[in-house]
């Protein structure tokens, strides 16, 4: 599904054929599929309206109007029948039910990066709240929206919460002024608290491993600390230095290949394909010899939220690899082998990394850097895939299909789907 | 001195002159005579002469002689006067006195010389000492100056050190102050933030109230028709029961997670325990079997027996299942003990080895060392030989590889030709053999055919002979019935024997290369011959002949 201005376009994933076309009242800011893929919600933040469309019955329609309360965020509940709207100024979260047409309110939600999180199996929802200048977390049962637990956290300013994939542990971390990660059990008990250091800027990003065995914490001091789930103590620190000296890491460097132009075939006026091929530069990967020094960007000292530290963390689906990005060294993706807790590969690109995502089935990483190429890495090797087409297609973000066979590449105005062929065994 | 000598020489030549000169001496001044004798600076000869003449003149001769006598006697010399005669001089005593005086003079001169020498030595020593003293004084000065310089430096460094310490303290204080400032500012900011947040909350509340109070018709949900729940169930009312059920479910989830983790941990534990047990067994096997000498190693023996008991206990299967503290401790303690023993053992071995390398007292060690050296030498020789071989081989390979293309081709061709020739020869041989075989086969077949024909003829003859026999036998039988049953088998046996005798003779002609076929024939014949029916014999034989022929 994609939206263009005020129209919602639904296409088939394998053939990109147009299936449905819906028209909303105003420009759509956000769309989301329901978990059973039967409904799509379109949020129009400016108007404060959420419109829901059904795929099975195109004639069915639903519109939720927040009115003067305004709308800042909207999302589905895991059962696909409730919509949670966050009103402006984070006044409250309204839970609209599509089955019973009833409304519930959650008061004092916290205005933070990740305030509402659902467990993987969709049973419980944790909401970060703030009352009287203190942070709280409420755990609700998604089935009947009953409050299960409500407890306070020892944080200065709770910045985010995240469930472990097994649904039993909730990680909460404080604002970047304080390095503090708290781990709560499902029933609200504090299991452990982790604090690496006191004064410098703290946690930047957090990721759970898919088996819930590890919690990776990326911080502003360019290090990732991994905690284990048995003792909740740090088992290792992964550093991101600008020079890589270890002989066991492989560094893939993106190198530009000059395009070969067949001079005989030049014609006047130059055809479009020729022009695009002339200007679009090809690139390939080269293995650089260690020691390698990566491009280092010194951050501006007196600005808030400096571009320092580990900003992106992702575990692979089979729990073997961790991909990180250090914002100081914005062109490199670091891939760590979790079995040996060592750096295994570094991908050095020509431009800043915009986004990377692991394949949900295999240990394959797709990286985009804002150029018209998507980069794929797997333990077998890495390759550069050029998006064919005219003009520049600058990939800003990407998203894998849940089967791992295709992925969507998004640029500012367009998107394309990249299909990956399976090797025939 | 020279002056004295010149004086004495003329004196010795004539006595009178001597006397004169002496008297002249004495005349000068008896008081100054001693000083004259002692004086180092000698007066000139002229003065001497004047002195000599001054003392004794012709007038005061007796006076001077008496004076000299008195002086000599006071000095201890014998008187120069003759005995009791007075005024007569004893020449002998005079000469003796003179000699004595000369000897004295020499002594005195020598003494003087020595004294002068000593004086000079002392003088030079003094000079030397003075020089040394001056140098030492200089050195002392220098070192004093150095000391002063070093002291200065030391003072400076100490003051620098103090300054640095002071700076450090200041910096620390500053840091502390800054930290305090930071914390105070942080609290201030927190306070301000809280205040602002409260204000903000108030605003939010107000806004919320306004929003709620407005009773906006707009805040509504317009839905075409209600959608069924995802799981198809109906919504439930919120009651205590549901709350309890929620709690229950939550705890179930947690418990299942814990159980899973515990299972994993149990598995891990079991594996680790197995590993530990195996390690223990390995360690025990590595340790040398300790002889239990009761006197010396009583302690060890006790320890061993304890350990053995432990081992015995812990190796019991049921102990593995228990995971209580004591069992765990026992296991770990036993492993630690074993490990320590192994370590000691290894250390002992290391010591032995090091002793063997360094010392040569123990003969055994020496011999082993020598053996070791011999072996190493042998090994080195072997290595060298191998290396040489490898080198030669490499050279050969190189030669082969680095030959010109032509030569390689030629070589290859040569090899090919050789092979081809060999093959051709072999082919030839093969063909010859094949021909031989064919010939033999033909001959065999011919022989077989002949054999068959001969056999046929033979059989026919036999048949005829048997018929004849039979006819004669029947004639006999008619005469006597009793003898027939016994004679028939005899006859048959005879026949079989004769038959058996005959085939070998027939078949001795063909080549022995086909024994199997002939033996088959024999077997066939014997089989055929043992069949009881006499009438059927010719038929059977015919059949066997057929069989033989078809074979």
Automatic annotation (TrEMBL), chain A:
<dbReference type="InterPro" id="IPR052778">
    <property type="entry name" value="Centrosome-WD_assoc"/>
</dbReference>
<dbReference type="GO" id="GO:0005815">
    <property type="term" value="C:microtubule organizing center"/>
</dbReference>
<protein>
    <submittedName>
        <fullName>WRP73 protein</fullName>
    </submittedName>
</protein>
<dbReference type="InterPro" id="IPR001680">
    <property type="entry name" value="WD40_rpt"/>
</dbReference>
<dbReference type="InterPro" id="IPR015943">
    <property type="entry name" value="WD40/YVTN_repeat-like_dom_sf"/>
</dbReference>
<dbReference type="GO" id="GO:1990811">
    <property type="term" value="C:MWP complex"/>
</dbReference>
<dbReference type="Pfam" id="PF00400">
    <property type="entry name" value="WD40"/>
</dbReference>
Automatic annotation (TrEMBL), chain B:
<dbReference type="Pfam" id="PF11559">
    <property type="entry name" value="ADIP"/>
</dbReference>
<dbReference type="GO" id="GO:0005912">
    <property type="term" value="C:adherens junction"/>
</dbReference>
<dbReference type="GO" id="GO:0034451">
    <property type="term" value="C:centriolar satellite"/>
</dbReference>
<comment type="similarity">
    <text>Belongs to the ADIP family.</text>
</comment>
<dbReference type="GO" id="GO:0007155">
    <property type="term" value="P:cell adhesion"/>
</dbReference>
<keyword id="KW-0206">Cytoskeleton</keyword>
<dbReference type="InterPro" id="IPR021622">
    <property type="entry name" value="Afadin/alpha-actinin-bd"/>
</dbReference>
<feature type="region of interest" description="Disordered">
    <location>
        <begin position="495"/>
        <end position="514"/>
    </location>
</feature>
<feature type="coiled-coil region">
    <location>
        <begin position="255"/>
        <end position="282"/>
    </location>
</feature>
<dbReference type="GO" id="GO:0035735">
    <property type="term" value="P:intraciliary transport involved in cilium assembly"/>
</dbReference>
<keyword id="KW-0963">Cytoplasm</keyword>
<keyword id="KW-0175">Coiled coil</keyword>
<keyword id="KW-0130">Cell adhesion</keyword>
<dbReference type="GO" id="GO:0036064">
    <property type="term" value="C:ciliary basal body"/>
</dbReference>
<feature type="coiled-coil region">
    <location>
        <begin position="369"/>
        <end position="396"/>
    </location>
</feature>
<protein>
    <submittedName>
        <fullName>ADIP protein</fullName>
    </submittedName>
</protein>
<keyword id="KW-0965">Cell junction</keyword>
<dbReference type="InterPro" id="IPR052300">
    <property type="entry name" value="Adhesion_Centrosome_assoc"/>
</dbReference>
<feature type="coiled-coil region">
    <location>
        <begin position="126"/>
        <end position="213"/>
    </location>
</feature>
<feature type="region of interest" description="Disordered">
    <location>
        <begin position="526"/>
        <end position="551"/>
    </location>
</feature>
């Amino acid at each position: 599904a994609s939206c263009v201005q005020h129209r919602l376009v639904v296409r088939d994933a394998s053939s990109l054929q147009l299936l449905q076309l819906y028209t909303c009242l105003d420009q759509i800011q956000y769309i989301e599929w329901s978990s059973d893929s039967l409904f799509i919600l379109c949020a129009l933040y400016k108007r404060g309206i959420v419109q829901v469309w059904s795929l099975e019955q195109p004639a069915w329609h639903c519109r939720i109007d927040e009115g003067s309360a305004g709308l800042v965020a909207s999302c589905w509940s895991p059962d696909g029948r409730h919509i949670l709207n966050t009103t402006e100024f984070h006044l409250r979260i309204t839970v609209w039910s599509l089955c019973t047409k009833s409304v519930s309110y959650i008061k004092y939600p916290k205005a933070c990066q990740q305030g509402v999180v659902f467990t993987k199996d969709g049973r419980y929802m944790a909401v970060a709240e703030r009352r009287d200048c203190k942070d709280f977390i409420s755990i609700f049962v998604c089935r009947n929206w009953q409050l299960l637990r409500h407890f306070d956290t020892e944080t200065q300013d709770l910045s985010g919460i995240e469930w472990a994939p097994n649904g039993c542990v909730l990680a909460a971390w404080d604002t970047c002024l304080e390095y503090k990660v708290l781990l709560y059990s499902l029933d609200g008990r504090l299991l452990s608290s982790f604090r690496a250091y006191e004064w410098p800027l703290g946690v930047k990003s957090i990721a759970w491993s898919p088996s819930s065995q590890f919690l990776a914490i990326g911080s502003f001091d360019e290090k990732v600390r991994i905690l284990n789930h048995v003792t909740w103590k740090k088992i290792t620190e992964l550093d991101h230095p600008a020079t890589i000296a270890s002989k066991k890491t492989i560094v893939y460097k993106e190198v530009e290949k000059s395009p070969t132009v067949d001079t005989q075939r030049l014609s006047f006026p130059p055809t479009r394909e020729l022009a695009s091929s002339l200007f679009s530069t090809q690139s390939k990967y080269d293995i650089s010899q260690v020691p390698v020094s990566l491009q280092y960007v010194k951050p501006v000292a007196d600005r808030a939220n400096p571009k320092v530290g580990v900003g992106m963390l992702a575990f692979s689906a089979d729990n073997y690899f961790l991909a990180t990005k250090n914002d100081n060294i914005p062109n490199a993706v670091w891939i760590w082998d979790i079995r040996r807790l060592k750096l295994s590969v570094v991908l050095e690109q020509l431009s800043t990394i915009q986004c990377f995502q692991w394949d949900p089935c295999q240990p394959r990483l797709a990286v985009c850097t804002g150029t018209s190429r998507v980069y794929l890495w797997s333990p077998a090797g890495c390759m550069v895939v050029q998006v064919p087409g005219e003009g520049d297609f600058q990939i800003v973000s990407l998203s894998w299909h849940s089967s791992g066979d295709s992925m969507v590449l998004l640029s500012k105005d367009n998107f394309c789907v990249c299909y990956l062929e399976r090797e025939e065994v | 001195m020279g002056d004295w000598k010149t004086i004495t020489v003329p004196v010795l030549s004539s006595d009178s002159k001597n006397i004169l000169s002496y008297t002249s001496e004495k005349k000068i001044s008896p008081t100054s005579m001693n000083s004259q004798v002692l004086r180092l600076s000698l007066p000139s000869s002229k003065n001497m002469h004047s002195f000599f003449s001054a003392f004794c003149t012709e007038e005061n001769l007796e006076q001077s002689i008496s004076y000299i006598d008195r002086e000599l006697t006071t000095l201890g010399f014998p008187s120069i006067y003759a005995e009791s005669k007075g005024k007569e001089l004893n020449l002998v005593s005079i000469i003796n006195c003179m000699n004595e005086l000369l000897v004295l003079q020499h002594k005195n001169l020598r003494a003087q010389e020595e004294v002068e020498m000593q004086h000079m030595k002392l003088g030079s020593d003094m000079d030397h000492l003075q020089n040394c003293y001056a140098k030492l004084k200089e050195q002392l000065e220098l070192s004093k100056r150095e000391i002063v310089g070093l002291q200065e430096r030391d003072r400076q460094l100490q003051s620098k050190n103090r300054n640095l310490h002071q700076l450090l303290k200041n910096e620390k204080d500053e840091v502390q102050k800054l930290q305090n400032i930071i914390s105070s500012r942080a609290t201030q900011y927190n306070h301000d933030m809280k205040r602002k947040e409260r204000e903000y909350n108030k605003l939010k509340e107000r806004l919320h109230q306004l929003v709620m109070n407005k009773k906006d018709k707009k805040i509504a949900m317009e839905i075409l028709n209600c959608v069924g729940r995802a799981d198809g169930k109906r919504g439930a009312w919120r009651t205590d029961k549901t709350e309890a059920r929620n709690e229950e479910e939550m705890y179930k989830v947690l418990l299942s997670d814990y159980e899973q983790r515990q299972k994993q941990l149990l598995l891990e534990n079991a594996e680790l325990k197995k590993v530990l047990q195996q390690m223990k067994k390995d360690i025990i096997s590595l340790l040398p079997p300790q002889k239990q000498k009761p006197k010396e190693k009583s302690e060890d023996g006790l320890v061993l027996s304890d350990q053995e008991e432990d081992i015995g206990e812990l190796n019991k299967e049921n102990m593995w299942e228990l995971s209580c503290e004591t069992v765990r401790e026992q296991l770990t303690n036993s492993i630690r003990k074993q490990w320590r023993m192994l370590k000691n053992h290894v250390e002992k071995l290391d010591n032995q080895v090091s002793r063997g390398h360094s010392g040569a007292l123990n003969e055994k060690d020496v011999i082993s060392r020598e053996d070791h050296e011999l072996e190493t030498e042998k090994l080195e020789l072997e290595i060298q030989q191998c290396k040489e071989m490898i080198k030669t081989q490499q050279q050969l390979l190189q030669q082969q590889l680095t030959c010109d293309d032509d030569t390689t081709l030629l070589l290859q061709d040569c090899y090919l030709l050789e092979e081809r020739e060999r093959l051709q020869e072999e082919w030839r041989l093969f063909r010859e053999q094949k021909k031989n075989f064919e010939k033999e086969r033909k001959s065999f077949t011919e022989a077989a055919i002949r054999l068959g024909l001969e056999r046929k003829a033979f059989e026919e003859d036999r048949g005829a002979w048997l018929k004849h026999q039979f006819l004669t036998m029947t004639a006999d039988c008619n005469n006597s019935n009793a003898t027939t049953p016994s004679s028939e088998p005899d006859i048959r046996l005879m026949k079989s024997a004769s038959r058996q005798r005959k085939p070998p003779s027939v078949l001795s002609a063909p080549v022995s290369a086909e024994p199997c076929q002939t033996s088959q024939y024999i077997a066939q014949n014997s089989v055929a011959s043992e069949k009881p029916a006499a009438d059927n014999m010719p038929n059977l034989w015919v059949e066997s002949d057929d069989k033989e022929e078809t074979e």
